[in-house]
Amino acid sequence: MSGPTPQGMTPVSTQYPTSASTQEEAEQFYSDLQAIKDKMPKREVCIIMGDFNSKVGEGLELESGIGPCGQGERNERGEMLACFCQATGMTITNTCFKQHARRRYTWIQPGDRARNQIDYILITNEWKTTVLNSKSRPGADCETDHILVAAKICLKAYKIVRPKQSARFDTDKLKDLKIRNQFQIEIKNRFEPLLQDWSTKEKTPNELWEEMKKCFTEVAEKNLRKRRKKPAKPYISEEVTELAKQKSKAGKNGNKEKYIMLKKEIQMKLRSLQETRRAGLNKNVQK
Asked: Where is this region: Disordered (predicted)?
């Protein structure tokens, strides 16, 4: 991988104003986007992706960050995107790789009257060599007239060294009178010989602290079992996941009636799950 060591990566998702927007709104969009880009650390990998509602067209323009594998002819909004890339030093990744036509277009006009490339993934020029591929995925089930665009990026991974966490004990068990009395008795029995030892030997504050900590830890390990992490509940149930697989299969097989039926059933079940989860959160807050 070329370039300096990455300090981090910031993905930005964006949505360009519709074609009915004014010139002032379009200019404000790029002004806001550039302000966001300028706030990022210079050595950080910046990726901007989304619906730009712009056609940059075919033809290599290195200074504008546009590769040779775009689609169609450039329009006015595409010219604004090209100027933005040139000003901020960014490359449009899904114009840089030779692909079949169906891997270039990202939007289908209702009625399939036209297919255009208007969704893009941008990356800072400094890191463009880390992009291995970038193309649209027409087979993805996105339930929209836009096509999923994906980029394969190779960045060096770094091991994050986290400090070792101390053992967590279930202190709620001390609410039980029997356990609390037992804990206090054992602590007292352990401390009596320690106090005698401290009265005859001179020790540093650190040595005293280590002996006290060892005493409390060993008694806690015996009487207060460590807390077990509760497994996180999946956001989507297995039933919904299975229905989604069936819906995707129906779409690929061209079974439109079954596809629509399963789509409605999934939406209904997701709403039900959301309401159940919200009710549970409200119940916890009231407690």
From this structure: 1-22
pLDDT confidence tier of residue 165, bands split at 50, 70 and 90: low
Q: CA separation (Å) from 110 to 15, 56, 113, 115, 116? A: 19, 21, 7, 10, 12
Say if strands 90-92 and 119-124 run parallel, antiparallel, or are unpaired.
antiparallel
Name 104's bridge partners. Answer: none
For 61-104, strand residue ranges (E) read 90-92
Q: Print the SS3 string covering 208-229.
A: HHHHHHHHHHHHHHHHCCECCC
**CA torsion angle 257 261 264 269 (round to 10):** -160
Residue 24 to residues 27, 54, 75, 78: CA-CA distances in angstroms?
A: 5, 16, 17, 16
Q: 87-100: per-residue pLDDT in tens?
A: 999 999 999 999 99
**Distance between CA atoms of residues 65 and 88, nearest Å:** 10
Euclidean distance between CA atoms 136 and 148, whole angstroms: 6
Domain 9-153: top CATH class:
alpha beta
Q: Is the pTM value of this prediction over 0.90?
A: no
